[in-house]
Design a protein that fits this description.
Blueprint: E1 2-3, E2 6-7, H1 8-13, H2 18-27, H3 34-43, H4 48-65
Antiparallel strand pairs: 1-2
Helix pairs in contact: 2-4
Length: about 70
């Protein structure tokens, strides 16, 4: 199926940006809460504030659309 000349294969081949992937893992509980989350994200080389901002934005969407 094609929509606006973009194939389904093209859409599924698009990679989710790393920040979004990590934010989804945070929402799923992989990195814990509070200081545990800060420490775990920092240990893996992520910017905690940037990831948390993405988590907050994703949660707005999740809370709006379920």
């Amino acid at each position: 199926m094609r929509l606006n000349n973009v194939s389904r294969e093209t859409i599924t081949a698009i990679e989710i940006p790393t920040i979004v992937s990590v934010a989804l893992l945070v929402i799923g509980g992989k990195y814990g809460n509070g200081q545990e989350r800060v420490d775990a994200l920092t240990a893996e080389g992520y910017d905690y504030n940037r990831v948390q901002k993405c988590v907050n934005e994703l949660m707005k969407v999740i809370n709006t659309y379920g």
